[in-house]
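Annotators were shown the component list below and the corresponding predicted structure, then asked to write short factual statements about the assembly.
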Amino acid sequence: MVLQQPPDPLIIAERWMLEGRDVAIATVIETWGSSPRQAGSQLVIDNSGNFEGSVSGGCVEAAVIAEAADVIRHGKPAMLEFGVADETAWKVGLSCGGRIKVYVERLG
Amino acid sequence: MDPFCLKKLNKERLERRAAILLTDLTDGRDRVVKETDPVAGKLGEAIRKAFLTGQSGAIEIDGSSFFLNVYLPSPRLVVIGAVHISEALAPMAKAAGYEMEIIDPRSAFATPERFPDVAVYADWPHDVLLERPLDSYCAMAVLSHDPKIDDPALEMALKAGCFYIGALGSRTTHAKRIERLKTLGFNDDHTSLINAPIGLDIGAVGPQEIAVAIIGGVIKAFRARDNLGKDGN
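Structure shown to annotators:
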């Protein structure tokens, strides 16, 4: 049976894992204000920077992908926060004015 | 994430079973919780609520921080009978997030022209539902008015444990329906699971209002369902 919305990030993560790639999984843990993606939304990233899924409307993905490279290297999970109150938010630009917390972990 | 958890989670999702990925944010450890798994205490209560609402979120319990990521199968609404109520129901089901499909062997009724946005199967329910099996994340609305079409569908919905089963018809019609189902081996416990007259009691008049009553009944049943501790389907 096929899932409803291919490509599904977690199905892709499993495929990448079977291909022997190193994989990180980013998950939206909490949102405040108007955030485009709700808690539980996921983005999967491999060691070459390929990614699938989303944790925002596209505004913080680049920063999450950069952090994922470190997480893959060190194996230690990271909790990232993006929001208007945060200086980095001006750089990555959560245009919606919301705040989000993203958990990035290595698969395996 | 533990690779074993990822495999287990994907397997559950592909087989249309609800699952929660429970991550301890303090140490990064995770586990997959199924609806049938018993979990006690405050965490168990949070898991139960998450399965019901489908809302993922973080919780603090006794100084530990957990994230519950809920994966529910997308609910299907299977409608037996390509009738006027089905036409009114189609856009409402879509708006409420249900994948609706219509089954009616009367090919003059079940035409794509009448139902542009819905999967329509102009075949007998028994045949269609063998190909596309029902499960506990399916709702069924039986609307064809023809026992030859409706009864086999009801039988399959009862056996599959659909979270909502509604049947159109007056109390007299339904009493006769129950008698027929009893000759097939169903008892009062089974037949009491059928919502008839169909839908919420809002005094609905005409196909559009009956469709509102049906989708309301489906949503109510979905948010009240309790598969915890039951055998999976």
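Statements collected:
1. DSSP finds three helices and five strands in chain A.
2. Residues 14 and 93 of chain A are 31 Å apart (CA to CA).
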